[in-house]
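Before relying on records like the one below, remember that each one covers exactly one chain. Contacts with other chains, cofactors or solvent are not represented anywhere in the record.
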Amino acid sequence: MDKSIVSNEYKIFLKLLKNIRTERACTQENLAYRIGETQSFISKCERGERRIDIVELRHFCLGMGITLGEFAQEFEAALMRG
């Protein structure tokens, strides 16, 4: 298993994270406010400059109005599509 922050799986993860946020008309500023972070934190995470853990991912999801489980399902589907 590739543990690099720039693995293909992680690129898919980051794309999905950003796509869900934008599909829900949520700006980086809105999400940052909702989860108690800065806009630059959100930006660094989305660009892959900062890797996020499962707890932070849960906060991202809740801030975007989805569950961690829903995100995981969408992530699995995105991985299958390649």
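The CA atoms of residues 3 and 27 lie 29 Å apart.
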